[in-house]
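## retry 2 of 3
previous attempt timed out at serialization; input unchanged, resubmitting
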Amino acid sequence: MGSTLSNTQHILIDYENVQPKNLAALGGHPVKVMVFVGAHQSKIPFDLVEALQKLGESGKYQKISGSGRNALDFHIAFYLGDLIARDPQGAFHVISKDTGFDPLLRHLKENGVNVQRSRDIAELPFLQISAEQSDDEKLKAIVKNLKGRGQSRPRKTKTLANTINNLFAKNLSEAELDALIALLEKRGHIRVKNDKVSYRLQNP
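## retry succeeded, writing output
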C-alpha cells in the first residue's frame, strides 16, 4: 500500500462510453485522472490531450490490451480496486453511462468507500456550486467553468442554461438561469443574438 493521498479526487473515465469535452474544468482541483482507451480507439481529440497534459503527472491514459465485451470495464474495476487500496481516504469517480458499474460501486459504498458513477465531468460533486452564493460568486465560477471548456462551450442559450444548471446541481429556477445569462451578457462575457451565444470571457 502507498501513502494516503487524503482529499484526492480519483477520476476513472470510460472513454469507450463517454468522450468528455470539459476535462479542463478539473484544473486547480486535487485530482488524479485516468482515461481508459479501448484497444481499437486510435484517435484522441486534441482538446482532451491538451487538457490531460496540463494536469501533468495527475493525468494519464490507460490503453487496454485486448478487446471483447466489457473488457474495458474490467480494467477500470481492477484499477479502481488498486487505487482504493492505495488511498482509502480518497474519493473515487467512474465517468460512464454504463449502469453495469453500479452493483460494484454499491458494494464498495456499503464497505465505506467514497465512490460514485457520473455520466459527465460536469456532474462531479466537487465541481458543483452552491445556489446560495452571491451573483458575483456564481458568475466567477461560471466563467471559470466556461473558460475550461475551450472550443466545447455551449453555442445556444438553452444549452448554456443547462450547463449552468448542472454546475448548481440543477437547483436553479428558469428565472434564475435567465438572470445569470443576462448578467453574463451585461458584464461582457457573452453576446447573445437569435439564441446563439458567442464568447468574450474576461476575468469576472
